[in-house]
Automatic annotation (TrEMBL):
<comment type="similarity">
    <text>Belongs to the TMEM231 family.</text>
</comment>
<keyword id="KW-0812">Transmembrane</keyword>
<keyword id="KW-1133">Transmembrane helix</keyword>
<dbReference type="Pfam" id="PF10149">
    <property type="entry name" value="TM231"/>
</dbReference>
<protein>
    <recommendedName>
        <fullName>Transmembrane protein 231</fullName>
    </recommendedName>
</protein>
<keyword id="KW-0472">Membrane</keyword>
<dbReference type="GO" id="GO:0060271">
    <property type="term" value="P:cilium assembly"/>
</dbReference>
<dbReference type="GO" id="GO:0035869">
    <property type="term" value="C:ciliary transition zone"/>
</dbReference>
<keyword id="KW-0325">Glycoprotein</keyword>
<comment type="function">
    <text>Transmembrane component of the tectonic-like complex, a complex localized at the transition zone of primary cilia and acting as a barrier that prevents diffusion of transmembrane proteins between the cilia and plasma membranes. Required for ciliogenesis and sonic hedgehog/SHH signaling.</text>
</comment>
<keyword id="KW-1003">Cell membrane</keyword>
<feature type="transmembrane region" description="Helical">
    <location>
        <begin position="210"/>
        <end position="229"/>
    </location>
</feature>
<dbReference type="InterPro" id="IPR019306">
    <property type="entry name" value="TMEM231"/>
</dbReference>
<keyword id="KW-0966">Cell projection</keyword>
<keyword id="KW-0969">Cilium</keyword>
<dbReference type="GO" id="GO:0032880">
    <property type="term" value="P:regulation of protein localization"/>
</dbReference>
<dbReference type="GO" id="GO:0060170">
    <property type="term" value="C:ciliary membrane"/>
</dbReference>
Length: 253
């Protein structure tokens, strides 16, 4: 039977695109937004550290710290973070796309900071075609209007056959402490600690890959059967296991 799909493992190349959209929600349904698309809405602090611990020229982890100043009379009960990344695999299939790091947290208690620890994973609905360089989903996901079009962003992203998502997610929500300053503002801090583990890639096998798989699977078996048959034939005729008659054809001139 021909093998139409196959699986392999690869550590992807993932690079943060240095864009962000962060939405803070208060109890009064007021939203406070900071993003990288409008200088008026920049977060007060935005730190990024990408680490390549095994020195294979591919980042293994991403650490991001985001801090912004918010009104102290608008306690925060929910946070939504959107961070685009470039995701690429090249070993067996050449596939590149823009993925999203998305995380949301809701609490019954007002908070002053959020810490997230997670792994970034490729999620596939269909196998990769693996016939040519695939850039189908390499378009930008975030823009200046994304904060006003979140349902469209979610719908478009969810309709794709390949996306990135967070797994093994662990969060720490720090409750708001009593504010002693008189400025009327307080700082909310978000810390993200993300790892990029090895991924399992499902792909459609090409014709030559199927031929290679056929040769690897069946050629050794055919070789073994050939050797066995050759030895059986030699044993049968050498030991006269069955009667044989030699036919001699005479020629008339």
């Amino acid at each position: 039977m021909w093998k139409k799909f196959d699986v392999y493992r690869e550590t992807p190349s993932i690079e943060f695109k240095y864009q962000y959209l962060v939405i803070f929600e208060s109890r009064n349904s007021n939203s406070f937004i900071c993003d990288s698309f409008d200088s008026k809405h920049y977060c007060q602090e935005f730190q990024v550290h990408e680490s390549d611990t095994d020195r294979d020229d591919r980042y293994d982890s991403l650490t991001i710290k985001i801090s912004t100043v918010l009104p102290v009379n608008e306690p925060i009960y929910a946070v939504h973070v959107f961070l685009p990344v470039e995701f690429k695999v090249t070993t067996v299939c050449w596939f590149q796309m823009e993925g999203l790091i998305m995380t949301s947290y809701f609490s019954f208690h007002p908070g002053s900071s959020l810490q997230v620890f997670a792994d970034l994973q490729l999620h596939q609905k269909t196998p990769l075609p693996c016939t040519e360089r695939d850039l189908t989903y390499n378009a930008s996901l975030l823009n200046a209007n994304s904060k006003n079009e979140l349902p469209k962003l979610f719908a478009d992203y969810n309709s794709r056959n390949a996306i990135t998502r967070l797994i093994n997610e662990q969060t720490i929500w720090m409750k708001t402490t009593h504010n002693t300053n008189n400025t009327g503002f307080t700082t909310f801090t978000i810390d993200l600690h993300l790892r990029y583990p090895e991924q399992e890639i499902i792909y459609k096998t090409t014709f030559w890959q199927m031929i290679k798989w056929f040769l690897v699977q069946y050629l050794p078996v055919a070789g073994i059967l050939f050797v066995i048959c050759k030895r059986v034939r030699k044993f049968v005729f050498t030991n006269n296991v069955i009667s044989t008659v030699q036919m001699i054809h005479s020629s008339k001139y």
